[in-house]
């Protein structure tokens, strides 16, 4: 299939938009996707996972014995679709995915938020007010254990904020 | 979305801010490999997460996508509450929204949970804070999939790391007219940012409205990504304004601006694309002081409300194209009356 914009190169990305009340799909090649601002780190490298991985492995691996226990995906499934099957796949195929991830993202590690981490670091007023609301609700429903918990955490956050 | 209007700075160019956070659950296939049963399980767990947390239950309302008419679904996209991809297949999908429509959570889009915070103007920090709180509250029940080196685990490895996309909707009439957007867009992509048209995906998007987003999610924190985006946005704002001084002196342009306002204030029928073009001229007039007595907030409201599906939905009846044009012109005249 050829790009709808230039009519020359193969389609690598589908862009869906609502145009005048209608769902419209644009099929674009890597170059046009880039030019029109629909590129991503992959189109920047000139293709999709299939072609990128092709460069790594020459061709699809013939043996496809290992399957993810959670979702049943094989590594070939991931390569073909460009989509990882589930969170567990990242562990199952870690060694094989890492070269690709490094190619796309560079040789680096995650920096930034960890689950649930930011609440403790920077307690915004809004979060305190949400927690106070939760506390009132816990008291109203006589859920005293949760209330005590919340009260302690609110105290902790307020204390932190005053110090800050 | 009549929320937060505290940040007036740069409102002439920056129309709105949106933060997206993508998250997934452990032990359930990602959306591309999900069975219907899996989809319903994730919906159920998201609902339970909301019910378990009174603060969430208090502000969020759930909409089952399967129960919506086409017009209702398209209107959600027009109001920036869900993506166009999301409504292309509504089965086993749902969305939580707040009454002011500033926050929404898509369930089973490209990832299990997709949190969005949408605010007017340049409001990156506030929007991030809102999305961040929702993320934390949902995480208490859903325990999002995370790897210490890879960050949040996403269906598409491109979003690994923070799983955060931050975007600004910009009005860039002068850069648009100068034909400089394509060059800018390709330079920005080298910096890990994308600039694309909002109304129309082709060569000439309508209304000179563009979206600037970060592409890099891995190896830098949310705050760093937001700071990068903001600094590039400021450069764009500066470039755009730099072109205004000269343009505003041109009689042809002054004429186009005045005529556009006159048309909006008196037309009896109006198509949405025509409205976008006229509104773009008027917004330019407001930003450069050529027009007084009309403000860009009014145009912002109209840009959302005048879209075909949203206009139809709010009228409460089925409309033919002509009826829609008449109703649109009526409402624009009412909003912008002299």
Explain briefly what this protein structure is:
Chain A has about 160 residues and is mainly alpha-helical.
What does this structure look like?
The complex is a heterodimer of chains A (164) and B (338). With 164 residues, chain A is mainly alpha-helical. Chain A contains nine helices and two strands, in the order ββααααααααα. Chain A has a two-stranded antiparallel ribbon with strand order 1-2. The longest helix of chain A is centred in the C-terminal third of the chain and has 20 residues. Helix content of chain B is 48%, strand content 17%. Chain B has an eight-stranded antiparallel sheet. In chain B, strands 6-7 form a two-stranded antiparallel ribbon. At the A-B interface, strand 1, strand 2, helix 2, helix 5 and helix 6 of A face helix 2, helix 3, helix 4, helix 5 and strand 6 of B.
Percent helix of chain B, as a range, is 40-55%
Output the number of helix runs of chain B. 13
Poorly predicted parts of chain B: 1-8
> Per the principal axes of the C-alpha atoms, what is the gross shape of chain A?
elongated
Structural class of chain A: mainly alpha
The greatest interface here is: A-B, 63 and 82 residues
Average pLDDT taken over every residue of chain A? 78
- The strands making up the biggest β-sheet of chain A line up spatially as 1-2
Major sheet attributes of chain A: 2 strands, antiparallel
How many DSSP-defined strands of chain A? Answer: 2
Instruction: Summarize the amount of helix of chain A as a percent range.
Output: 40-55%
Terminal CA distance of chain A reads 58 Å
Gyration radius over CA of chain A: 24 Å
The overall strand count of chain B is 10
Low-confidence stretches of chain A: none
Q: What are the defining features of this structure?
A:
heterodimer, A: 164 residues, mainly alpha, two-stranded antiparallel ribbon, 2 strands, elongated, B: 338 residues, alpha+beta, eight-stranded antiparallel beta sheet, 13 helices
């Amino acid at each position: 299939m050829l790009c709808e914009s230039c009519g020359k190169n193969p389609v690598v990305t589908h862009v869906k938009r609502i145009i005048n009340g209608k769902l419209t799909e644009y099929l674009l090649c890597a170059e046009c996707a880039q030019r029109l601002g629909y590129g991503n780190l992959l189109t920047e490298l000139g293709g999709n996972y299939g072609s990128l991985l092709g460069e790594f492995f020459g061709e699809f691996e013939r043996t496809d014995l290992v399957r993810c226990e959670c979702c049943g995906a094989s590594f070939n499934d991931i390569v073909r679709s460009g989509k990882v099957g589930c969170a567990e796949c990242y562990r199952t195929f870690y060694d094989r995915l890492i070269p690709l991830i490094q190619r796309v993202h560079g040789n680096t590690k995650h920096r930034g938020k960890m689950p649930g981490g930011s609440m403790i670091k920077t307690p915004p007023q809004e979060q305190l007010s949400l927690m106070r609301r939760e506390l009132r609700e816990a008291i109203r429903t006589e859920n005293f254990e949760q209330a005590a918990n919340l009260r302690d955490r609110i105290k902790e956050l307020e204390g932190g904020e005053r110090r800050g | 979305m009549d929320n937060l209007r505290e940040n007036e700075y740069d409102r002439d160019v920056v129309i709105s801010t949106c933060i997206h956070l993508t998250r997934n659950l452990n032990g359930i296939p990602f959306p591309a490999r999900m069975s219907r049963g899996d989809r319903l399980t994730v919906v159920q767990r998201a609902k339970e997460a909301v019910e378990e947390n009174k603060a969430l239950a208090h502000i969020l309302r759930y909409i089952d996508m399967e129960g919506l008419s086409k017009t209702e679904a398209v209107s959600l996209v027009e109001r920036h509450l869900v993506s166009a991809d999301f409504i292309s297949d509504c089965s086993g999908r749902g969305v939580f929204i707040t009454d002011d429509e500033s926050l929404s959570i898509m369930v089973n889009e490209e990832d299990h949970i997709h949190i969005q915070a949408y605010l007017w103007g340049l409001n990156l920090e506030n929007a991030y804070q809102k999305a961040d709180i929702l993320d934390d509250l949902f995480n208490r029940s859903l325990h999002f999939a995370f790897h210490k080196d890879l960050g949040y685990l996403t269906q598409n490895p491109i979003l690994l790391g923070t799983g955060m996309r931050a975007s600004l909707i910009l009005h860039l009439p002068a850069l648009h007219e100068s034909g400089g957007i394509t060059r800018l867009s390709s330079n920005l992509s080298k910096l890990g940012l994308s600039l694309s048209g909002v109304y129309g995906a082709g060569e000439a998007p309508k209304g000179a409205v563009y979206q600037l987003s970060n592409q890099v999610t891995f190896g830098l924190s949310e705050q760093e990504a937001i700071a990068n985006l903001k600094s590039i946005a400021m450069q764009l704002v500066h470039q755009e304004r730099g072109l205004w001084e000269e343009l505003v002196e041109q009689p042809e342009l002054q004429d186009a601006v005045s005529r556009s306002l006159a048309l909006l204030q008196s037309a009896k029928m109006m198509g949405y694309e025509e409205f976008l073009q006229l509104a773009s001229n008027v917004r330019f007039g407001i930003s450069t002081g050529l027009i007084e007595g009309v403000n860009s907030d009014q145009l912002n409201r109209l840009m959302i409300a005048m879209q075909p599906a949203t206009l139809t939905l709010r009228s409460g009846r089925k409309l033919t194209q002509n009826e829609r044009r008449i109703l649109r012109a009526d409402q624009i005249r009412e909003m912008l009356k002299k």
